[in-house]
């Protein structure tokens, strides 16, 4: 411990970014799924800043009840306020809290990093929504009086209650439109749904761009899969497609590398080579706009099967690429990122594959 840290400090030398901290995270028995996601989120700078700000504001409020949000904020604050530039931190309280909140993560078995990320973001949103409701209620009554129970009154002045947009939403939330066109009357039915990440089906020797294209390609609903058209009042053949209506500021892409194979009766890991570019253009899927994204973190699954293996992460910070493997942190060349694309052959000795990709929007051009 520590040795890897000082090596990193030497490697960065004068270029060590002012105020930045690079800390490995201790593993508490197969908690690499958690560590790899935490590093990606820590280096998601808008998210980190909001979380640190939340923590700073909340500390002055007195008695913050411990929850996953306070544990995460506490951990990030602990990392960012370290005197040393590098080292190792034990995310003990956070991991304990995760296990307490969700029995799925209680065992020492290998867990899915994407499931964990999903659980974490939704949990943070739930906590922020509850807090917002609580402050609304207490501000409607005397400020000194704590509300123990009672219904949460919707605003009395007739304003429709909009769903709360938290800073978690502001970073990660995008909107998809699911369009279905009845082939008889040509009526288009559109249904919006929000997302925190996109789960993409993958193919051998493909790229993120082609996976995104497949994701929003037109699908025909026919035979036993017909669509009930409200206008025709009957089942009709239809065309369906998904479009990204509002791209998120942080685009998280989950590659579906774990596939259930019916003949085998179990999940199999797809080691397919899927190229993920450092700069991604989201053009074909968005109406009339070209959004540019830059890759800043990759959660990598190491191993050949779905039930065992290891997770590490690659992170870009101040134009340097770093490799986080639990306690250890190393600097890597940008060109190393492409060794995590996957394998063009089915059996390969390289089992380190990009699994969750984190892109940040770098301003839109039309
Ligand atoms: Zn119709």
Overview of the molecule:
The chain has 366 residues and is an alpha+beta fold. The protein has one domain: Cathepsin B, Chain A. It is 28% helix and 31% strand. It is built from 8 helices and 20 strands. The strands form 6 sheets. Strands 5, 11, 15, 16, 17, 18, 19 and 20 form an 8-stranded mixed beta sheet that branches. The chain has a 4-stranded antiparallel beta sheet with strand order 4-3-10-7, with no helix packed on it. A two-stranded parallel ribbon has the order 1-2. A hairpin with a 4-residue loop joins β8 (227-229) and β9 (234-236). The longest helix is centred in the middle third of the chain and has 28 residues, at 113-140. Mean pLDDT is 87; it is low at 142-156. Residues 23-362 form the USP domain.
Q: Please tell me what the overall shape is.
A: globular
Provide the number of structural domains. 1
Q: Extract low-pLDDT stretches.
A: 142-156
The CATH topology comes to Cathepsin B, Chain A
């Amino acid at each position: 411990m520590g040795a890897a840290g000082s090596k990193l400090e030497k490697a960065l030398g004068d270029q060590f970014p002012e105020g930045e901290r690079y800390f490995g995270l201790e593993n508490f028995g197969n908690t690499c799924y958690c560590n790899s996601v935490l590093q990606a989120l820590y280096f998601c700078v808008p998210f980190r800043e909001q979380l640190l700000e939340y923590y700073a504001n909340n500390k002055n409020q007195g008695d913050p009840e411990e929850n996953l949000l306070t544990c995460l904020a506490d951990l990030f604050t602990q990392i960012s306020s370290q005197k040393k530039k590098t080292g190792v931190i034990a995310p003990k309280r956070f991991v304990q809290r995760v296990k307490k909140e969700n029995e799925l993560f209680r065992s020492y078995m290998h867990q899915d990093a994407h499931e964990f990320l999903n659980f974490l973001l939704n949990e943070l949103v739930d906590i922020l929504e509850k807090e917002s409701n609580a402050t609304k209620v207490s501000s409607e009554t005397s400020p000194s009086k704590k509300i123990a129970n009672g219904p949460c009154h919707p605003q009395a002045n007739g304003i429709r209650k909009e769903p709360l947009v938290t800073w978690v939403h502001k970073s990660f939330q995008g909107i998809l439109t699911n369009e279905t066109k009845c082939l008889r009357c040509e009526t288009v039915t559109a249904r919006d749904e929000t997302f925190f990440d996109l789960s993409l089906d993958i193919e051998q020797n493909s790229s993120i761009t082609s996976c995104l294209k497949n994701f929003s390609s037109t699908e025909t609903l026919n035979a036993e899969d017909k669509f009930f058209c409200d206008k025709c009042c009957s089942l009709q053949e239809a065309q369906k497609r998904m479009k990204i209506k509002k791209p998120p500021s942080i685009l998280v892409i989950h590659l579906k590398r774990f596939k259930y194979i019916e003949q085998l009766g179990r999940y199999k890991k797809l080691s397919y080579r899927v190229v993920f570019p450092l700069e991604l253009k989201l053009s074909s899927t968005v109406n009339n706009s070209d959004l540019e994204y830059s890759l800043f973190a990759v959660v990598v699954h190491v191993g050949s099967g779905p039930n065992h293996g290891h997770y590490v992460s690659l992170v870009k910070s101040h134009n340097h690429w770093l490799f986080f493997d639990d306690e250890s942190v190393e600097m890597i060349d940008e060109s190393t990122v492409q060794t995590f694309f996957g394998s063009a052959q089915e059996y390969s000795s390289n089992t380190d594959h990009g699994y969750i990709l984190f892109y940040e929007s770098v301003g839109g051009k039309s």
